[in-house]
Structure formats: structure tokens, C-alpha cells
Amino acid sequence: MVVGINCGHTISGAGSGAVGIIKESEHTRLVGQALMRLLRSAGITVIDCTIDQANTQNEYLAAAVALANRQDLDWFISIHFNASVEHKGHGAEVYTYKGRQYQDALDVCANLGHLGFSNRGVKDGTGLYVIRKTKAKSMLIEVCFCDNQQDVGIYHAAGGAEGIAKAIYKGIYKVAVSPSVKLPADENHTPTREEFHEFVGEIARKDWQERHIMIPSVVIAQAAIESGVGTSELAQNANALFGVKLNGWTGRIYVKDATEQNEDGSYRTDKNALWRAYDSWKQSVLDHNNYIATRSTDGGKTLRFAPVIGCDQYVLACQYLQQCEYATSQTYASTLINYIERYNLHQYDEFEPEQIAPEGFSWVVQAGAYKSLNNAKMFQQKLKNIGVASKIVQYKTE
Ligand SMILES: [Zn+2]
């Protein structure tokens, strides 16, 4: 996917745009640059079609369109802020060629409406030079009215340029993210609770033995609680068993509101939060351990979850997670501990001392005994169907 972004208007002089309570050309750049960062971090190629200086308005428009038409774009997006004579106009709107009601354009409008602006809809922008002259499918977004006090208030409350960029991004990015997150063929994504514990447990045990990051029972409990045993929107649509925000992630991204708890115990919603998306649940479990092992908020000088790493007592590990502010929930540790004890997950933390079979020998698990060879073969086939290799040997049984 290739997207051209035009931060509307020049910075000053000819073609410089409206000046209301906030200055249009300044905020088109803030929104556009935030949007470009989001798109690039999702692996989308972004062409910056912004023109900072021009001798005339027409020269500015022609230069922006020339940049856009140099390559094939999936979308050309021009960012603007509106203004009206009496400063009473308010709301968000999007212009397209002949007013085409593209789903992405409708979604951008709806997402801006979701932030609190009135949704003025997708309108006919054929009269606009950048809509008419660009070869690509194009939309011109009027984020809101920069000269209207109420709109500017909503703009700031929605997170300013970052909040707007996420709303636009969510409108166009799903095209890139949704089809590419597939259900891995070798994972059962509708497991029973017990199957879920076993699935995560096997990965967590192996990783604990190899990397010693987080004790298996805690990994399983976190995965089960955070994903609703694999049923959450993130688990089903983004293959993510944990809600991990981007924090430097350069892989695929999933966009979804986040519910966070405030210090006074009340809840708030962070709109259009960005989450890591994965190829499989397995990748999600391993990346979560990576995250625990490497998360730093001071450029790597200190590790945020240092006490958790390698801690082999599940009660302590859960308390450390809460102390290190893994989650905003104030009952996070007790929830995890109760879950581990209720489902006996500490059994996943136990490791016998390793004994390696001598050269030429293997440890063989005996699975069944039959009088009938046909029945033995049927059982062998069943095992084969679930990926277990087995051998049929005639033993003396008495
Ligand atoms: Zn404008």
C-alpha cells in the first residue's frame, strides 16, 4: 500500500490557509506528520506531498499534485482545517471526487465524529484542484473548524494532532491490516480453557527453560485473563493474547479503544489505541516475553520489569508486575494469583532435573495396549492425526 499525504497549505505567504484560534497550516503539518509516522510504522509506504513555500496559490497546488502523480498511490490524502465567516461552522467533513462514498472516507468521517465533532459527511470535492487533478483515489479532510471555540476544544480533548491522526489512520489502515492477519492453520483458536492452558503452557515452559524471562504459570494466567481465554477481539482479530501497545513495535498494528483505570478507581476510554498484531498466538506469547525482558522507558538504562525477569515464585512475579505498573488495574496481582491457584497452573512451573537418554536410546511414551492389531493401528492413526508419531511393538503382557 502506498499513501500520499499532503499537509494542506504552505507555511506562510501564498497558499498559507486559514488562521483561526489555531493556525491551519501549522496543524495540518502536525496531523499529517503524526499520520505519516503511524502509516510508516505499519509498513505502509508514505509519500510526503507537502509543499512549504510557493509564489502563488496555484503554484502550490500544482506542485503538490505533481508530487502525488509521480507514482501510483492507493490514496492521496490532503489534510485541512475549515473556517467560516461568522466562526459558527463546526464539524468534520471529507471531500472526494464526485462525492464518492468510499468506505474509507465514510470511516474517517465516522471516526472523527466518534471523537466528538459533528459528522458533516462525505461531500463532492470535484471543484477542488487536488481532488480533480490527482490520478489516485483522493480525499481532502477538513478535520474541524479552526476558528470555532467548541471544535478547537474537541480537537485538544481528543489528543490534538495525535488523536486526529489515529482517527484518520483507523479509517484507511484496516485495508492493510485486516486481510493480512490470518488464522494460523496449526493453532486451535476456539480451545477449551484446559486446552488453552496447555497451549500457552507448552510455549511458556520451553521459553522459560531457554530464556528464563517469566515463570510459566504467570504467562498462562496473564494470557487467559487478558484474552478471555482466547475469545477477545485482539485474540481473534490480531492473534494477540496480551494487549501490548506499540512502544517501538514495527510490526503490524491493530486499532481498538482501550479501557484504563484511573488512580481514583474510575475508568476511562483511550480512543483508537494502537496494539501489536501477530501472525499467531505463539508469536504473541514469545513477543510478550520479549516485551517483559526489554521494556524500558529511559532508553534502555533501566528495565521496567527487572524484578519480574527470572523470578521463579509466581506470587512475587505477580506482585512485581503490578508494582512495575504492567496494568492500570489496581487488583491485577490478586486476580492473577487467584487464577493460578484456582486452575493449579503452578504445576507448569515444576521441572524435574533433566535426564538425557544415552546415545542410540530415546524416552518412549507408551500410549495403549490391544489384543487386536487392527485396533492398535486405529489408535496409532488417531495419534498420527494429532501429530504424535508412535510405534507398534508386540510385548509379552503377563
Ligand atoms: Zn485548507
Explain what this protein looks like in three dimensions:
This protein is α/β, with parallel strands linked by helices and 398 residues long. It contains 13 helices and eight strands. The chain has helices at residues 24-41, 57-68, 103-114, 129-133, 149-157, 160-177, 193-211, 216-227, 233-238, 281-294, 314-323, 332-342, 373-385, and strands at residues 2-7, 45-48, 75-82, 92-96, 119-124, 138-145, 253-261, 267-276. It has a six-stranded mixed sheet, with helices on both faces. Strands 7-8 form a two-stranded antiparallel ribbon. α5 (149-157) packs across α6. The relative contact order is 0.09. The mean pLDDT is 91. Zinc ion binds at residues 8-9, 17, 24, 80.
* Count of the separate structural domains: 3
CATH topology of the largest domain: Aminopeptidase
State the secondary-structure class. alpha/beta
Task: Tell me which CATH architecture of the largest domain applies here.
Answer: 3-Layer(aba) Sandwich
Query: What is Rg?
Result: 28 Å
Biggest sheet layout: 6 strands, mixed
**Helix proportion of residues, in percent?**
25-40%
Number of helices: 13
CATH class of the largest domain: Alpha Beta
Give the SSE layout.
Elements: E1 2-7, H1 24-41, E2 45-48, H2 57-68, E3 75-82, E4 92-96, H3 103-114, E5 119-124, H4 129-133, E6 138-145, H5 149-157, H6 160-177, H7 193-211, H8 216-227, H9 233-238, E7 253-261, E8 267-276, H10 281-294, H11 314-323, H12 332-342, H13 373-385
Parallel strand pairs: 1-2, 1-3, 3-6, 4-5
Antiparallel strand pairs: 4-6, 7-8
Helix pairs in contact: 1-6, 3-6, 5-6, 7-8, 7-10, 8-12, 11-12
Bound molecules: zinc ion.
Zinc ion (ZN) is lined by residues 8-9, 17, 24, 80.
